[in-house]
Amino acid sequence: MAASQRLSSKHLLGIKDLNTQDIELILETANNFKDVINRPIKKVPSLRDITIANIFFENSTRTKLSFELAQKRLSADVVNFAASSSSVSKGETLIDTVNNILSMKVDMVVMRHPYPGAGVFLSKHINAQIVNAGDGAHEHPTQALLDAFSIKEKLGEVAGKKVVIVGDVLHSRVALSNILCLQKLGAEVMVCGPTTLIPKYIHTLGVKVEHNLMKALNWCDVANMLRIQLERQDIKYFPSLREYSMMYGLNKQILDSLDKKIIVMHPGPINRGVEITSDVADSQQSIILDQVENGVAVRMAVLYLLASQKG
Questions:
Q1: 155: burial class by Cβ within 10 Å (0-12, 13-18, 19+)?
Q2: Could you tell me which of 99, 177, 196, 241 has the fewest CB atoms within 10 Å of its CB?
Q3: How many C-beta atoms surround the C-beta of residue 59 within 10 A?
Q4: pTM of the predicted model, to two decimals?
Q5: What long-range pairs does 60-66 form, CB within 8 A, spacing at least 24?
Q6: d(CA 80, CA 149)
Q7: Within 13 Å, how many C-alpha atoms sit on residue 168's CB side?
Q8: What is the DSSP-derived secondary structure letter of residue 167?
Q9: CA 141 centroid distance within chain
């Protein structure tokens, strides 16, 4: 599978660094890789001579597994690094940690870090390609790309579609990346949630703001339900989870009351019974498991296109 075009960026630090052509190239390449991972033999030798280090300074299940599976499907050599059981816990700096790993001849680093901009900082100090797997409450570019891929797969295109992002927008790295990605592909975006969980700067991104869930759902074609990120909240932003769920939780009764069929998405992990009920998560209108499957294909595309820059 030859990359006839190249990404305009050496790294994938955020959606803001990609242009529309980059995003379309990634989605087109992911489409080819989705065919690969559904074959009896799921491996291709595309990254056979590439070594990739997965460096996670925060807990992760889906993203880490998805990247690792994507790397192995491409025949890359994979090194996994968990900060909690490393010399970071002894006070070693980020640059020293990564340089020690790179001295073992690693070509690419996939990093999740609690601080916004950690990937950008690292890209200026080390000689390896960086893929941002989430930096604090800033960006999560591969999640946005797989979400866009999933919408396109289900609805045929992203342009002209109306997407509402519901919930804890303030603390979500998924929200910002999704807004930027969807807008670059021509979608309309709305955010919905309590005033306390909608960032004050949000209007500068050109998105609609709605505090009434029913109005938002009646407007949209796609509802992306975000998790309440209690681990990032230093104060109480709403009275209780029960009250939040009553105001902004999506259940089957609400879904069935709408005049049209909408698609329901969730970046995971799901807090069932809070932002979304089980009968919605497991319904025909949910594409949550499609998102998980598509995540492997999209991450294969990103790694492959970045590695081809070296050629």
A1: middle
A2: 196
A3: 11
A4: 0.93
A5: 60/112, 60/133, 60/134, 61/269, 62/268, 62/269, 62/292, 62/295, 63/112, 63/133, 63/134, 63/140, 63/142, 63/143, 63/295, 64/112, 64/133, 66/292, 66/295, 66/296, 66/299
A6: 27
A7: 25
A8: S
A9: 5
Pairing of strands 222-225, 263-265: parallel
Q: What domains does the chain contain, in order, with CATH numbers?
A: 15-139+292-310 (3.40.50.1370), 141-289 (3.40.50.1370)
The per-residue pLDDT for 59 is: 81
Ordered mean pLDDT values, 10 residues apiece, the chain (311 residues):
75 97 98 94 94 90 95 96 63 79 88 93 89 94 98 98 96 95 98 94 95 98 87 55 90 96 95 94 97 98 93 53
How confident is the model at residue 231, as a pLDDT? 47
The structure tokens listed for 228 are: 């309440």
The pLDDT assigned to 182 comes to: 98
Q: Residue 143 phi/psi, 5° resolution?
A: -65, -45
Q: 122 near 130, Cβ under 8 Å? A: yes
